[in-house]
Structure formats: structure tokens, C-alpha cells
Amino acid sequence: MKKTQKVRVEFRRNRNERTRDSDLTRQFQEHGFEEEKETQAERIGGKGDMSRRRTVVGELLRGDSEQRDGFEVVPKVDADAVISGRVIRVHGASSEVRADDGRIFSCVTRRILKTLSTKERQPVVAGDRVLFRAANNCNDNSTNNHNYSQAAPATAYIEGMIERVEPRHGIISRESKHRKHVIVTNVDQVLIIASATQPAFKPNLIDRMLIMSEKAGIKPIICINKVDLIELFELQPLVGVYAQMGYEVILSSVVSGLGIDRLRGKLRGCESVIVGQSGVGKSSLLNAIDSCLKLRVSELGAEQKGKHTTTTAELLELSSGGYVVDTPGIRQFMLWDIIPEEVLGFFRDLRPYENFCHYPDCVHLHEEDCAIKNAVAEGRLDMRRYESYLAIRFEERYSR
Ligand SMILES: Nc1nc2c(ncn2[C@@H]2O[C@H](COP(=O)(O)OP(=O)(O)OP(=O)(O)O)[C@@H](O)[C@H]2O)c(=O)[nH]1
Ligand SMILES: [Mg+2]
Ligand SMILES: [Zn+2]
Hints:
Layout: E1 2-12, H1 17-31, H2 40-44, E2 51-62, E3 71-74, E4 83-91, E5 94-99, E6 104-109, H3 111-116, E7 129-134, H4 135-139, H5 148-151, E8 160-165, E9 172-176, E10 179-184, E11 189-195, H6 203-216, E12 219-225, H7 236-244, E13 248-251, H8 260-267, E14 271-276, H9 282-289, E15 314-317, E16 323-326, H10 371-377, H11 383-393
Parallel strand pairs: 6-8, 11-12, 11-14, 12-13, 14-16
Antiparallel strand pairs: 1-2, 2-3, 4-5, 4-7, 5-6, 7-8, 9-10, 15-16
The protein binds guanosine-5'-triphosphate, magnesium ion and zinc ion.
């Protein structure tokens, strides 16, 4: 349903924007996701005096998660003057956009899109479907009232301006410095990569990324890479636990080639995102799956600790059809937008026991007669999964 009406929208004051754009660009270049610096405006947060209300006329689309009172506000665009495309990657203030006809444009973002997105850090994200105006269209058009040079970084050659971001689905996000960080949009599959070793195997991180996918309603596939460095049987119990829950687990090695064909088959024709800690081999796997990609991978392996080889989430077209988004590694993974009471519901294995706990408000920690603790004690539930639940349910941010 579409209709046009007046809506009240919060605006962030403009004065911090330029600082933030250049700051973010630098942060991305240097560190990838993790070390984003909070700017003054973001640190203050809330609705206080950093925001004000205005009424704008917008076209409202129903049914997206980034909504306001059941509606998403998107600016009106002149349908004849815009080109539709897909955001391949975002680098600070500029986005690389592939038009539907295959041409690549370097775009800046219309200021109103930045001010419309009050709850999000990034108004434009890799994977977004956008409508943009090519720069030469605008130059000879007297109705054009956008000043391109104003929003552009001094050195960039501006080819286009994003006028609208279409409603998103399949949104993968996490928390970064107490704020939502959208990693990618419009994907229908998440490939969760862990490494059997180097860096050390961290199943609890898999659990967090599973919750992230479940929350987003996107199908996850678990992949444990670098199995050439371990004895396969060591992983069998863990693979069994996930398989019993109905998750697909693929063991892989770029060195021996194990699992590569299977992964290639999973990606074919799909829109996927590949996530995992830095150094687990995400880019290496993608290179093995599609030799045309030629992504940069770390030469030093685990020794290059603390450095991201991939620094920007990037949408890649696969020669076998479909897309995959390679992402920079994550060091610490905080879930976004999950309340403590919700956590257990995302543990498929623990969840069925909850009804049998003695106390209806049991959090399965110290309570007597807790069905979940009993099942763990009797070996019917995996101890590590239970501990993983506790780690997430009682993590420090919930007591802030
Ligand atoms: N032994 C072994 N090494 C691997 C395997 N896959 C990747 N590596 C090595 O692991 C290191 C890291 O690989 P990358 O592909 O750069 O890792 P990444 O996950 O993309 O890392 P970021 O881009 O920093 O997030 C490289 O030195 C690879 O050669 C594997 O299956 N076995
Ligand atoms: Mg990489
Ligand atoms: Zn309980």
C-alpha cells in the first residue's frame, strides 16, 4: 500500500554530519567495523536537544522493519529521472552502486536520507536497493536543487546521488558501541564461518551469529573452516549438536578442498552474506568457491592478529549466479535489539524444556527444579550450549 501524507520526522542537527562522514571513512580505512569512534552526536543519543521535529512530505511504504508508526518514510522521487541499482559497497560518504544495466556509479547520498535515519548509523548499506540520479542528468536540469559539491568529499568524482533507499528485508545487524550497526541488507542466507583453529575455535560466537540470523529471519548455514589443521573426529560431537537442532553444518578447508563444492552449491543463485571472526578464512573460501573473485586474503594467517584484511562489506556477483557479501571480520559480537527474556527462545534445543520448569519466570540459573538444568545434568542437553545461553542471557550490557 502506498500513500502520500504529511508525517512528523525527527531530524538530527546538520552540524555534526560532515565531521562524522570523514571520521567514519578514516575509521573504516584503519580498522574495519570494530573501532568506530562515537561522535559527539551519537554519544549524547536519545531525543534530547540534539534532535528536533519537522514535518516533511514523503511517500510512505508499509511493511518494513525500519518503520515509524507502522510506516517507513521514504522521500518522493521523480521516477523518470532516477536509475535503480544495488549498493555494492559503502566507503564513508560515497557508495558504489551497480545500475540494473551493469554500469557502476560512485554516488553520494542525498542529505534528507541521512537526516531521516535517526535510529541507524548508516543511511545506505551494502546490499541496499536504491534509486539514484546520475550527475549529468542533473546538471542540465533547471529543476535540480541539489548541490552536489556540498555533500561530496573534496577529492571524489561524483557520478550520482542516491535519492531513495528502498525498504529493506533480510537485514543483518549487530551492536557496536551501544548502537545498531547494519552490516548488510536484502540477503536471504547467512553463511556463518568459524575456524577449527587459528584463530581458536569459538562455538559461542557461532551461537551468537545464529541468534542474529534467527532474529533477522534469515536462514543460517554453519561452516567450520581450516579442518586440515585438526583431526576431524574432534568436531563430531559439536557438529552433532547443531545438526540435531536442524542447522546445516559444513566442514571445509581451502587447503584440502573439503566442503568447497558443497558451499558453492549453497551459494549458487542465492543472495548470501558471509560472516565470522577475522582470519577464519571468509575471503579465502570465497576465492576457492569462485576463482574470478580474487579477493585479498591475509598472508600471515593468524599471526596478523588484530588486523582486518577485508575492510568493507562488499557485494560480489558470483559467476555461477547470485550474490555474496564478503564482510570484515568481527572481533566481538554483540547482539542488537534482543531483550534478555527473548534469549532462550533463540536456543532451539533448550526452548522445549522451559515449560517444565517449576517457576514460570525461571531464568534457568539458580532456580530449584529447573527443567533445563536437569536436562543438562542428565546429559539430554549439551552443557556448552547451556553455558552459551547463560553467557548471552546474563551478559553485562543487560545490567546496564
Ligand atoms: N590451513 C588453512 N588456512 C586457511 C584456510 N582458509 C584460510 N586460511 C588462511 O587463513 C588466513 C586468513 O584468511 P582470510 O581469507 O584473509 O580470512 P578472513 O576471514 O577473510 O579475514 P578478514 O578479512 O580479516 O575478516 C590466510 O592466511 C589464509 O591463507 C584453510 O582452510 N586452511
Ligand atoms: Mg576477508
Ligand atoms: Zn528453568
